[in-house]
Write a structure and sequence with these properties.
There is one protein chain. The protein is an alpha/beta fold and 272 residues long. The protein folds into 2 domains: 59 residues; 204 residues, NAD(P)-binding Rossmann-like Domain (Rossmann fold, 3-Layer(aba) Sandwich). The protein is 40% helix and 18% strand. The protein contains 11 helices and 10 strands. Helix 8 links the parallel strand 6 and strand 7. The protein is globular and about 65 Å long.
């Protein structure tokens, strides 16, 4: 009887293993799809779904993404796009944190929302969505508001945390908790035509400087609102930052903020 290793090598076309072969291997050897994906990467082969990654992400780096744990705080405008992109990128374990259900005002911009899902918990919808688009990814839904009382437990074991919250006090708590835990934090915020992204490593105070004048309540997004396109743009920058953190590639937005102005199509770097 063929071993898993023999089966995968025989199934490979060059160094690519198709999704159908991955599913068949899981069935034949009584493994999870995640287990088979890890075995494929261990053989220096590549699941075919990631073949368009390969000119920028090596198989070794793809394995690092698969072994990584990302925590996303917030599953709304930014968070929905972040979750989708992390899963398609191949991050193996994602924790999604949000206390809310979908409401009608979410429908203009939140990727995971739809009329039939109004009233459904955002984290449960996220889990269903990720299971559909990349079943080899493990998504852990946490239906809770992130705060000082539970934050350390939520981010424990994470390799990167992505900030997709909508209020300043939670951002301060998130920055403090990630700093104490030694976890890089990728921050993003949006309001109307505008957004910004920054990456804060333990010991840095970038978020504290950005929000030094806004210590209470929501940011300007409560005044300017958000259209359909701003979340996707800012979230894409955040996922690119998270990817670089996880594979240790490129220059991150450390000690600097990238300000996005989609009305005038300007991107400005602000040092911190």
């Amino acid at each position: 009887m063929a071993t898993l290793e023999t089966f995968l090598k025989d199934a490979a076309q060059g160094d690519l293993v198709s999704w159908s072969s991955q599913v068949l291997a899981a069935q034949r050897f009584d493994l999870t799809l995640a287990g088979v994906e890890g075995a494929i990467l261990d053989l220096d082969l590549l699941p075919a779904r990631y073949q368009r990654n390969r000119n920028m992400i090596s198989i070794k780096q793809q394995r690092r993404l698969f072994d990584s744990h990302a925590v996303v705080i917030g599953c709304g405008g930014l968070g929905g796009y972040v979750l989708e992109q992390l899963a398609r990128l191949g991050v193996g374990r994602i924790t999604a944190v949000d206390p809310d259900t979908f409401e009608e005002h979410n429908l203009n911009r939140q990727l995971l929302s739809s009329p039939r899902l109004l009233g459904h918990a955002k984290v449960e919808v996220a889990a269903s969505r990720i299971a559909d688009i990349n079943p080899a990814v493990t998504l852990v839904p946490v239906r809770a508001a992130f705060g000082e009382d539970n934050g350390a437990e939520i981010v424990a074991g994470a390799d990167v945390v992505v900030d997709a919250v909508d209020n300043v006090p939670t951002r301060f708590a998130l920055a403090e908790i990630c700093g104490a835990a030694g976890i890089p934090l990728v921050h993003g915020a949006i309001a109307g035509w505008y957004g910004h992204v920054a990456t804060q490593y333990p010991g840095d105070t970038t978020l504290q400087k950005i929000y030094s004048r806004f210590k209470n309540g929501k940011g300007v997004e409560s005044e300017l609102g958000n259209p359909s396109f701003t979340p996707g743009v800012a979230a894409s920058f955040q996922v690119a930052e998270a990817c670089k953190v996880l594979i240790d590639e490129g220059d991150s937005l450390r000690h600097r903020k990238l300000h996005l102005n989609l009305l005038d199509m300007e991107v400005v770097e602000v040092p911190f």
